[in-house]
Specification:
The chain is α+β, with helices and mostly antiparallel strands. The chain has one domain: Cyclic Phosphodiesterase, Chain: A (Alpha-Beta Complex), CATH 3.90.1140. It is 25% helix and 40% strand. A 5-stranded antiparallel sheet has the order 2-6-5-4-7, with helices on both faces. Strands 3-1-8-9 form a 4-stranded antiparallel sheet, with helices on one face. Strand 4 and strand 5 form a beta hairpin. Helix 2 packs antiparallel against helix 3 (99-114). The chain is globular and about 45 Å long. The structure holds adenosine-2'-monophosphate.
């Protein structure tokens, strides 16, 4: 089986911006396992464990789902925490811009995955880039200088995730272009 998820990758420079933000957040927050810059992404759908033989068919359906969507213009917005900053499990940075289209894309991806037996999302989609995770839900202090950065997502990526004590390793398995022309 392969542990897989679908996400938007981020440009190299943006990961640098976020790495600097993580440094500032680290000073104020101990006990957070921060995501390494190279592992930062915006998740559209977590597939869980899928049989290796499903990778190609799912990749084909992701192409079909993504094809009509236009590239997304997104900007980094504020920091936040799930479920909230008083009992945080996840520290993230939000996005603004084409968020409606981002939600539609996530829904199309969800549908494509559902046709392969992957359970549909029950919670509404909330686009975010995870920066850190806490084993023990704790208060977090996110009052650091805001981050600035924008990017255009032109493809979605099906990733393999391999967990190890040193952190997760993500390998791209397939990329689907957003080929829509808007309108
Ligand atoms: P998030 O951290 O962006 O919220 C790879 O593990 C990605 O899949 C993570 O970035 C994570 O999203 C997302 N994901 C969603 N549900 C998950 C789950 N139950 N277990 C692990 N990852 C999950």
């Amino acid at each position: 089986m392969i542990r897989a998820f679908v996400a938007l990758d981020l440009p190299y420079e943006l990961k640098g911006t976020l790495a600097a933000a993580v440094e500032r957040l680290t000073e104020r927050n101990r006990g957070v396992r921060w995501v390494r810059p190279e592992g930062m992404h915006l998740t559209l759908k977590f597939l869980g464990d899928i049989p290796e033989t499903d990778v190609q068919p799912i990749a084909g359906d992701l192409d079909v789902a993504a094809g009509p969507c236009s590239p997304l213009r997104l900007r980094l917005s504020g920091f936040g925490a799930f479920p909230g900053p008083k009992k945080a499990r996840v520290v993230w940075v939000g996005v603004s811009g084409d968020t409606e289209a981002l939600g539609s894309l996530a829904k199309r991806v969800d549908e494509a995955c559902a046709s392969h037996g992957i359970p549909r999302e029950r919670r509404p989609f909330a686009g975010h880039i995870t920066l850190g995770r806490l084993r023990v839900p704790s208060v977090v202090d996110l009052r650091v200088e805001p981050v600035q950065g924008a990017f255009v997502a032109e493809e979605i990526v099906l990733y393999r995730s391999e967990l190890s004590p040193g952190g997760a390793r993500y390998t791209p398995l397939h990329k689907s272009r957003l080929k829509g022309t808007g309108g």
